Amino acid sequence: MNIKFIAVIFSLVLSGCQSSGDIDPAQKNKINFSEGTLANEKLTSDTNAGLKKILGGFEITPQTNILKTVIQQPVGSPGVSAWREMWIVDSPGAVEKFVITFNETGAGGTDFQIKRLNQPNPTPSESCPKTFGDYKAGELTSQEVQSCLGSPSHENYNPDGRYVYLYKLKTNTILAFVFDKSGMLLNTRGYKQD
Question: Which of 66, 91, 117 is the last residue of a domain?
């Protein structure tokens, strides 16, 4: 199983799931993950169409891998139950995460809501650095980096308190920010993927 996937699921468990429909937020002690989807073929196709609208058709290609995991088991009676899944769209140049809440309507149909995770901040403030090289060690905190770039694609925490934010850009570039245990930026690095 992919370590990045486990880290994403673990961080989701720690933060809980915010309600986006009729289903109550997941309780930490009631979460039971299972790989795959509970959606039938038609519902999966409809959900993929919804993702394409959000992402734009150019991001879902034959090389795209969509990992589906049930993160909250169905609650309610059969035919009118609700459940949540996390779908991770791994496309060349980008990884996007979505929490999808499915609500059976009782008439043989199912409604769904898609919530994008780690959505970048659409309007960074004027005080944000203009280029990657302008993110200077000792001058910025992790909160300031997140306010400029949005939530990271991946986070990694070390036992000594240091932690890393990774941002995967559509240009096949990964930006890495290393912070000390107080949240102060220690180092930056950029990587180009081939």
Answer: 117
Classify 28 as helix, strand or coil: helix
Q: Where are the alpha helices (DSSP H) in the chain?
A: 3-15, 41-55, 142-149
pLDDT in tens, 11-64: 444 444 433 345 555 444 345 567 889 999 999 999 988 888 777 655 667 778
Looking at the domain assignment, is residue 32 inside a domain? yes
Residue with token string 């933060």? 15
**Chain centroid, CA 48 distance in Å:** 16
Sorted by sequence, the CB contacts under 8 Å of residue 46 that are 6+ apart come out as: 112
The answer to whether the beta carbons of residues 118 and 153 sit under 8 Å apart is: yes
Element (H, E) at 129: none
- How open is the CA angle 61-101-98, to the nearest 5 degrees? 40
Say whether both 16 and 65 belong to one domain.
yes
DSSP label at residue 57: G
Please, which residues bridge with residue 157 across strands?
Answer: 163
